[in-house]
Amino acid sequence: MGEMLLDHHKDNLPIIIIRPTMITSTYKEPFSGWNERKIDCLLVNSQTIFDLIPADMVVNSMIMAMVANANNPSSQMIYHVGSSLRNPVQFFQIHEFVFHYFTKNPYIDKYGNPVIVGKFKVLDSPAKFHKYMAVRSVLPLKLRRAMRESGMELDSFNFDPKSIDWEDYFLNVRIPGLLIYVVK
């Protein structure tokens, strides 16, 4: 509805809409692993592909979309920013990455005791999800083409999820970032 309202009242202003998927910890900029929250419950099939995108890639996509469409004042472009098309990762892989990380790097609490890290609560039906909640109270090819046509260097801003090595990202960026910035 917000997008329709913008379109209706835009007059001669260009509109660029960015629709990111699940935004996760930064990949590289301004530093690896930055995040301010964590998820402890998921409604998911373990074979499900998670469409994740690091926060800095979303920001870089926004910048590139503005530059690519700067000379088209009457444009209305919608870009979907995600990873599932170019570099899919399944939930069970993420689960394996988390266990691998904490096997090699046990988490120690402020008293020096190891914290036993359990599995995610995987809720595979809406009924289980509602019960749990009650108890607890890609960037499309169009943008790449527009960037090439505008003469912009595609390597200036990293917004290609294909460049993400998911295992490396979870083991060396995401999990350490959660421990530094969220768990503290």
Automatic annotation (TrEMBL):
Keywords: Lipid biosynthesis, Lipid metabolism, NADP, Oxidoreductase. It is an enzyme of class 1 (oxidoreductase). Catalyzes the reduction of fatty acyl-CoA to fatty alcohols. GO terms for molecular function: alcohol-forming long-chain fatty acyl-CoA reductase activity; alcohol-forming very long-chain fatty acyl-CoA reductase activity. It comes from Citrus unshiu (Satsuma mandarin). It catalyses: a long-chain fatty acyl-CoA + 2 NADPH + 2 H(+) = a long-chain primary fatty alcohol + 2 NADP(+) + CoA. This is Fatty acyl-CoA reductase. Belongs to the fatty acyl-CoA reductase family. Residues 1-39 form the Thioester reductase (TE) domain. Gene3D superfamilies: NAD(P)-binding Rossmann-like Domain. GO terms for biological process: long-chain fatty-acyl-CoA metabolic process; suberin biosynthetic process. Pfam families: NAD_binding_4. Its EC number is 1.2.1.84.
